[in-house]
Amino acid sequence: MSLTLLNRVRGLLDDNNLLDGYAVRYFRWTDADIAGNTPFVLFRQSGSGESNELVQNTLVSVVLVATPTTAVSADALMQSLLRWVRVSGGDTGSIRFDPAGTVVGPSYLENGRPVFTLDVRVFTEDQ
Questions:
Q1: C-beta of residue 43 within 8 angstroms of C-beta of residue 59
Q2: What's 21's domain CATH number?
Q3: Domain encompassing residue 75
Q4: Each residue's pLDDT tens digit in the chain (127 positions)?
């Protein structure tokens, strides 16, 4: 079910053309990704909240790894992602999306690539 949740969050962002120009990864990235210069976004399930027989909620992390020269535009993109999550509905099979905080970052990898993270709480009825 975790890949379904990740794809729901990705679908919300894809539907609004917010991932254009970024490769998509799930669960983890490798040293080859870090050494490269291709910007990517990583989706992974990072926690859960209260669940019952009616509604489940799960935390999904959206991690954006940009290039050393695109920190400002990556920050603007993450702020756009945050805005879309705040106003989104349940159109991708979920009841609701809520930001679980604000955008964190940038933090920097040793090769100078900026990393931003946004946690999204996904409410569903089907887990």
A1: no
A2: 3.30.2000
A3: 2-124
A4: 588 888 888 888 888 788 888 999 999 887 666 667 889 999 999 877 677 677 778 899 999 999 999 999 999 999 998 988 888 655 556 677 888 889 999 999 888 899 999 998 888 876 4
Q: What does 3-67 look like in DSSP terms, one character per residue?
A: HHHHHHHHHHHHHTT-STT-EEEES---HHHHHS---EEEEEEEEE----SS-EEEEEEEEEE--
**Could you tell me whether strands 40-48 and 23-26 are parallel, antiparallel, or unpaired per DSSP bridges?**
parallel
Instruction: Pull the structure tokens for residue 78.
Output: 């993450």
Largest Cα–Cα separation, the chain: 47
Is the distance from CB of 42 to CB of 115 less than 8 angstroms? no
Among residues 80, 88, 84, the alpha carbon closest in space to that of 123 is found at 88
When divided into structural domains, the chain yields a total of 1
How does DSSP classify residue 116?
E
